[in-house]
């Protein structure tokens, strides 16, 4: 038991470092929970619980940037809460066997988003710069898109940050601090409302989740001190290799083994 908790703490520690520097921590923490016997749906809910503290602390760090957009925040938070609870509810309605089957595809989707996220953001920023004066229909479509993204976040946490950043670029945001603040705010709202539902449903593995959570907090703190010494390019390359390897493992385990 002690070995398992220490291993999950280590996974959370690595995930916290990756999240602070380049994102992608869920590629470490979610498979670690599965490896130590947490059922898939419970592992997904537990990973959401363990990630939430990092989202909240990050959003607080960007509070001044968020305050500049205070008029927009209530609607963004409301949509995030609605999508988050809908996604969490959908997860809880999904049979364990079916969720196990779609895990490789969800990981593949998140991996491709991580790999292509930079180019996608650049493309969407260029598109947004030519469409700053969107029509009412365009704004409604953007809100519906945000709702869909939040639903995904409530259902499966991995890759959420990349999707939200891409959405913000499409919505016309350009200041990276504002975008990161909004990304973390949206992720916090989604996670918190999802966790409430997960708690009432009893699907969070508390001992394992707290171990990952503590590791994530320590990893994030350490990353704040060493991030300047690390090459983001090399960190991203490491995450891509790990995520591709883990995704391949789950495809082999599901469809070949």
Structure description:
The protein has 257 residues and is mainly α. The protein has one domain (2-255). The chain contains eleven helices and no strands. The protein is globular and about 50 Å long. The model has no long low-confidence stretch (mean pLDDT 83).
Strand-helix topology:
Elements: H1 2-21, H2 26-35, H3 40-61, H4 63-67, H5 73-93, H6 96-129, H7 136-155, H8 160-170, H9 176-201, H10 206-226, H11 232-255
Q: How does the overall form come out from the CA principal axes? A: globular
Helix content: over 70%
Q: How many β-strand stretches?
A: 0
Tally of discrete structural domains: 1
Radius of gyration: 18 Å
By secondary-structure content and strand pairing, the structural class works out as: mainly alpha
Structure summarized in a few sentences:
With about 260 residues, the chain is an all-alpha fold.
Features:
11 helices; 0% strand; single chain; globular; 83% helix
């Amino acid at each position: 038991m002690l070995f398992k908790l220490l291993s999950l703490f280590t996974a959370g520690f690595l995930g916290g470092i990756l999240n602070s520097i380049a994102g992608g921590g869920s590629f470490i923490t979610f498979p670690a929970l599965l490896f130590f016997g947490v059922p898939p749906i419970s592992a997904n809910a537990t990973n959401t619980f363990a990630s939430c503290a990092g989202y909240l602390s990050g959003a607080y760090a960007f509070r001044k940037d968020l305050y500049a957009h205070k008029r927009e925040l209530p609607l963004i938070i409301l949509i995030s809460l609605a999508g988050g609870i809908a996604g969490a509810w959908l997860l809880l309605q999904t049979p364990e066997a079916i969720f196990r089957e779609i895990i490789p595809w969800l990981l593949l989707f998140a991996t491709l988003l991580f790999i292509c996220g930079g180019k996608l953001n650049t493309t969407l920023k260029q598109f947004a710069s030519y469409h700053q004066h969107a029509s009412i229909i365009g704004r409604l479509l953007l809100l519906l898109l945000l709702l869909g993204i939040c639903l995904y976040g409530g259902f499966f946490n991995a890759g959420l940050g990349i999707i939200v950043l891409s959405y913000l670029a499409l919505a016309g945001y350009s200041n990276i601090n504002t975008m990161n603040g909004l990304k973390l705010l949206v992720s916090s709202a989604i996670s918190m409302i999802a966790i409430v539902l997960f708690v009432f449903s009893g699907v969070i593995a508390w001992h394992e989740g707290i171990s990952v959570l503590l590791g994530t907090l320590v990893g994030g703190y350490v990353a704040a001190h060493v991030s300047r010494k690390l090459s983001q390019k090399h960190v991203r390359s490491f995450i891509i290799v790990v995520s591709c390897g883990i995704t391949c493992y789950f495809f082999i385990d599901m469809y070949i083994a």
